[in-house]
Amino acid sequence: MAQQPITLIGGGLVGALLAQQLAQRGFAVEVYEKRPDPRLTGFLGGRSINLALAERGLQALRTAGLADDVLQRAVMMRGRMVHALDGNSGLQRYGVDDSEVIWSVSRGALNMLLLDAAEAAGVQFHFGQSLVSADFDAQRIRLADASGVERDSPVGMLIGADGAGSAVRAAMNAHSPLGERIESLGHGYKELEIPPAGELPDAVRQSSGGHDQFALEPHALHIWPRGGYMCIALPNTEGSFTVTLFLPAQGTAPSFATVPDATAAAAFFSEQFPGLLPLIPRFNEDFDSHPVGTLSTLYLERWHLDGRALLIGDAAHAIVPFHGQGMNCGFEDTVVLANLLAAAPNDSAEVFAEFQRVRQPNANAIAAMALENYVEMRDSVADPHYLAKRELGALLATRAPEHYMARYRLVTFSHVPYAYALERGRAQDALLEQLLRNTPQVANIDLDAAVSLFQSSLPPLPPLRHG
Ligand code: FAD
Ligand code: E1W
User: Fold this and answer.
1) Residues near ligand 2 with C-beta < 6 Å?
2) Strand order in the sheet with 6-9
3) What domain range includes position 169?
4) 326 CB less than 6 Å from ligand 1?
5) Which residues of the chain have pLDDT under 50?
6) Are residues 221 and 342 in the same domain?
7) Distance separating alpha carbons of residues 405 and 427, to the nearest angstrom
8) Quick one: pLDDT at residue 48?
9) Does the record bear NADP in its keywords (predicted)?
10) Of 373, 399, 425, the domain-final residue
11) What is residue 344's predicted lDDT score, i.e. its pLDDT?
12) Of all protein residues, whose CA lies closest to atom 17 belonging to ligand 2?
């Protein structure tokens, strides 16, 4: 094919997967990535950070022919293991069976696999090259190497996959405002590590369940909900877990301001996460050397500059991580864009406009659901009304599967548009509230009547998967 070459900025998760798919469809693709090649230098100082891969991301990887390779390096998570302050814990399954599970994957290993796949498909990577600015009228970009030396390069179609702090977005915004709004959550995060069980003292190992390699149940996403804040932990293949503390940035309740260093943090953990602290032998070093991450939602009115430039992934729609869908959503983006471009390679203005038309309502919907899920995670996992709704929902999911599916499952295990999941979730929730209005007790509810209510009030669910 003799199309104009495509220039991608950012070889992260979304950039690398998009590049691979475009190359597979016959496009010439060049990628400029700020960081050095992680396959040569290691990823981010070798820290293991992981992410939850769900059905939408997996479906995009299937399209790219990479799903099996990724799953080989992933740890299955069947549900959330909720750890109460009194030390009690219990597994709440995510889905109905092992066909509805999510996967913990290493960010670094996944990124490297995607870089290999993109390169094998013919993509040309330039590492250690960061975009500084873009002159869209002259069709030139300015790049800086690691030592700050700048050079200019001509560019045709430009795609920004350079993450939440996108330089492509800044350049587009300077040319003509994108209607950018960034809403800070006001909470930050800190990553800590639980090493493989073999590296923990015997006394600690025994009190945590006795899974040979892992200090906690390996096949779960662990949550320690504490009202205004929480910890989570996801398993790594080597037997370790990456723990993330989510905490308000400021304020007098525990916050990163009142817990500024390892000494204060260890005292805070011994009160609020007493079972977790002994599993983190390098707590002090981790806490003092890892930065506090910030969390925001990014909303843009416009994702493209006519046919010249487009944003994708976090660069277009960064969200808070509490549904574990940022990467999944970005991966879904890549399939939509690659298909649109392959169908109309010479009409980028139309393709970019259509991409925004299709994806923006869905990005807005997952942004809203991710924010809602933080509150649900932190406190309502223990709230009796929430538990009653879950219990009733679980009964309806078996008795009226065509008319009820929990929103979490629609988001995590189906391909229905996020906007549909949000809307359907609202309608289902209103009916559950109506049924529980006069009794807090699920046992008092006439299930046949409840099934009839759902069947008469809502259309059947659409097909949950495609392709
Ligand atoms: P990024 O991964 O940020 O990649 C951007 C790339 O662009 C990087 O390689 C960067 O070096 C490069 N770059 C930046 N600036 C320039 C420049 N000027 N020039 C050239 N290159 C540049 N999502 C999930 O689906 N599941 C999860 O469980 C999950 N957990 C998360 C937990 C936390 C704490 C956070 C913060 C996010 C989480 N996410 C999760 C979201 C996920 O990390 C992002 O949605 C995903 O990384 C977005 O991919 P991206 O390629 O768009 O951006
Ligand atoms: C998932 C960082 C992150 C990633 C996740 C999830 C959560 C809480 C967080 C949402 C969830 C997988 N979730 N888990 N249990 N209930 N909701 O499903 O990815 Cl904080």
Assistant:
1) 52, 80, 102, 221, 232, 321-324, 373, 377, 412
2) 124-127, 29-33, 6-9, 157-160, 309-311, 304-305
3) 6-75+103-180+300-373
4) yes
5) 1-2
6) no
7) 11
8) 81
9) yes
10) 373
11) 97
12) 323
Of 310, 340, 373, the residue that ends a domain is 373
Structural tokens at position 326: 């940022």
Largest CA distance in the chain: 72
Same domain flag for 28 and 160: yes
Q: Do 10 and 110 reside in the same domain of the chain?
A: yes
For residue 1, what pLDDT is reported? 45
- Amino acid in the structure at residue 182: I
Q: Global pTM? A: 0.97
pLDDT of the residue at 207 = 62
Q: What is the pLDDT of residues 427-464, one digit of tens each?
A: 999 999 999 998 889 999 999 999 999 999 999 999 99
One domain, residues 282 and 358: no
Q: Looking at the CA of 8, which ligand is closest? A: 1
The contacts of residue 463 (CB under 8 Å, 6+ apart) are none
Contacts of 135 (CB under 8 A, 6+ apart): 141, 142
**Residues 194, 47: one domain?**
no
Strands (E), 344-387: none
Tokens of 309: 């430039």
Ligand nearest to the CA of 171: 1
CB distance 100 to 287 below 8 Å? no
Count of beta carbons in the 10 Å neighbourhood of residue 213:
13
With respect to residue 368, please indicate whether it lies within any of the assigned structural domains. Answer: yes
Pocket perturbation via mutation, ligand 1, pick of 7, 9, 13, 292 by most ligand atoms within 8 A of CB: 13
